[in-house]
Amino acid sequence: MLNLHRLIGFVYRKVDQLSRPFIFNRQKKQILAKYPQLRPVMEAFERRYIRVQYGAHDISLMERIHRKIAQDERYIYGATPWVALLRLTEKLELRPDEVFVELGCGTGHFCFFMQQVFGIQAIGLEALNTFILNAKEIMTELSEPPYNLHFEGLQFHNLDFLHFNFSRGTLFYAAWTCFPVTLREAILDKFFKECKPGTRLLVLTHTLEDPRLELLSEVETFFSWGKDVARLYQKRE
Ligand SMILES: C[S@@+](CC[C@H](N)C(=O)[O-])C[C@H]1O[C@@H](n2cnc3c(N)ncnc32)[C@H](O)[C@@H]1O
Description:
Elements: H1 2-34, H2 39-50, H3 56-66, H4 82-89, E1 99-103, H5 109-118, E2 121-125, H6 129-143, E3 154-157, E4 171-174, H7 181-194, E5 200-204, E6 213-223, E7 226-235
The structure holds S-adenosylmethionine.
Residues 60, 74-75, 77-80, 102, 104-106, 125-128, 160-162, 175, 178 line the site of S-adenosylmethionine.
């Protein structure tokens, strides 16, 4: 039985490893057609997470197994694909002083996207250290020749986002599909206590019915777990 499980695991990982570059290439073409300046960033992510034996899902699982939190549903990994970022951001009207905060940023690619494409501040918060170390390494690598990219305003922190001061953000993103209801409530509590009216919250899957929130828009798009809906809310005056 153990051997059968091992075999299934091996086949699953091989299929993932071999299919990742094809899926990523399709996304890369679409993204670079619109934002060619993202090539070095996308290729740095490709070197770390795509053309390697272990992708982001494996990296998340390995750290969670090591820290004995593999069964904790809060840390289940799923990615917002690069192409989904095009849909999620197409109707966002961003001010130059906008501060994007990603609650559980995973690899951090959404933060790189926001800072590099729109020139706004972006802060990625993530409980898993491997992702944060990789994001910081990508920043260092691309700040140097031949790339010389600028990353002012882009930050990554390895911390529990409930310890972050939400008053620093003006636009929050949480891919909170798998977060238990208690965690989603704790996020909302902080959002209402610490954020100014007008602050926006972009979330997936779960609808929010709260008189303190106004629904601004809804977008349906594909995520690593299938089709899902992203909703953009704003804290009322
Ligand atoms: C579904 S993944 C989404 C990753 C990324 N936002 C994306 O869309 O590609 C959720 C992430 O939130 C992180 N996470 C969950 N609870 C957290 C917490 N309290 N503090 C920081 N990160 C957390 C998990 O480790 C996981 O990487």
